[in-house]
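Mods, move this if it's the wrong board.
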Amino acid sequence: MQSRESNKALSLASGAALAAAFALSVPVVERLIAAILQWCKFAGYSDAGYITLSLKTGFLFTGLLAATFGSALWFNRLAKRRAAPRAKGLSYLAMWVAAVVLVTYWLLGMSGLNVWRA
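Not the wrong board. Structure tokens:
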């Protein structure tokens, strides 16, 4: 049986992964809101309003999200082996948030509301 302190440290690490995933969601939410506002503002015009996303920043952002997802997955596996339900739940949620943010970013990038910057 693992010690209580190691389970607490694992829960803190899983919480940090969840906090990182939520922090990385902030720019995506901001760009999503900007896209919705531009679409509403220019609805009915021949040339709708666009937002811009950077491809280089997108790759960096994808790397950060992949690192967050990977660490959350690792914490989840450790939590399963150590029977730490709190850490298991936090890391599982962190994996979901990171995956949803990543998919949302690239779907927004592929939408007609975006114009890519180099």
